[in-house]
Amino acid sequence: MSVTTTKTVTKHSHSNEVPPQIPSGFSKMGPSIAGYFGCLTAVYAAIYFGYLDSDSVLGSFKPSPEYCTSSETPCSRSDLFAFQISSGIAISFCGVLGFYTWHVSKRVHTALPATPEGRLFGYLPESEQLAAINFSFQFWDFFISLLIPEHRTPLMLGHHTAASVVCFMSLQHQMLHYYGVFFLGVTEFSSLFLVLIDLAKFFPPEPETTFDTISGLCGPLFAASFTVYRVVLWWKVSLLLWQDCYHVVTKGSSDALRPGKNYVLYIFLFLNVPLGLLQLYWFGIILDAVRNILAGDA
C-alpha cells in the first residue's frame, strides 16, 4: 500500500507584508550627540570663565562700547566671544561636510536613488552625521542664547526650536537624508562668513589688521553664498521636497516604507514654510545693508 503525501504551499502576498521596524537613528547617535553638546559647552565655558574678569579676550579682542554697560568693570563680553567661537565650530562642521557631500564627493546625488522614495527614505551616513551635529548645536544654542541678551530674541529661539525638531525627526525616523544634506549642511556654508562678521561687530578689529581684512571679505562672500543657498536653491530644493512628499503619499509608498509615519512628512512640510520665509526676511535685511553701503560709497 502506498501513501501519497500532499504538500500544501501557502503563498504570501508581499503587498501585505509589514517591513521590519526602522531602528531609531536618534538612539544610535545619542552618545555622539551628548559628546557634541559637551564639547560645545566645554569650549564656551573655558572662554567665558577664562576671560570673565578681563577687559578683552586673548589680549586683543575688545568689545564695542555699545555691548558693555556702565556696571560692567572690566568688560570683556567673554560670553559673546565664547558663543561665536563655539557656534563657529559647529557651523564649520555642518557647512564643510554639507558642501563636500553636495558638491565634491556628490554622494548625496550618487549614493541615494534619484527617486522620491530614495530622497525621502534612503540612508546616507553623512546626512545622519549632519543631523546629529546640527541637533546638538541647535539644542545647545537655544539654552545658551537664554543667557545672552543679544541672542535671546523670540525669532532666534523659534528658529532653534524648529531646526531642532527637523533634526530630531530626521534622526528618529531615518528620513529625508537627501534633504538633510542640503538644509542641515549646505545652507550652513553661508553662516561660516556670518560668524566672522558678527565677531567683528561685537569686537571691532583695528584698521588694517588681518582680522579687519578677513571680516571685510566676509561681507560680500556671505551675501553671495546666502543668496545662492538660502534663497535661490532653498526654494528650488523645497519645491522638490513638496513634490516628493506628494508622490509618496498619493502612491502609497510612504506607508509601505514607513508605516504610520506620514505625519512626519507633514511636520517637515509645515516647518519648511516658516523657515523658508525666515530666509527671505533675512535676505531683505542683507539687501538693506547692501543699499546702505552703496549709498555711502556714492
Output the keywords.
298 residues, TLC-dom, globular, disordered N terminus, mainly alpha, TLC domain, transmembrane
Structural write-up:
The chain has helices at residues 25-50, 78-104, 107-110, 116-121, 125-145, 154-173, 177-184, 189-202, 210-251, 253-257, 262-297. The chain is mainly α and 298 residues long. The protein has one domain. Helix 1 packs antiparallel against helix 6 and helix 8 packs antiparallel against helix 9. It is globular, with a radius of gyration of 24 Å.
- Oligomer description: single chain
Task: Please state the structural category.
Answer: mainly alpha
Compute the number of helices: 11
**Proportion of helical residues:** over 70%
- Mean pLDDT comes to 91
Keywords: Membrane, Transmembrane, Transmembrane helix
Subcellular location: Membrane
Pfam families: TRAM_LAG1_CLN8
InterPro entries: TLC-dom
Concise account of the structure shown:
The chain has 11 helices and no strands. The chain has 298 residues and is mainly α. The chain has one domain.
SSE arrangement:
Layout (H helix, E strand, L loop, with lengths): L24 H26 L27 H27 L2 H4 L5 H6 L3 H21 L8 H20 L3 H8 L4 H14 L7 H42 L1 H5 L4 H36 L1
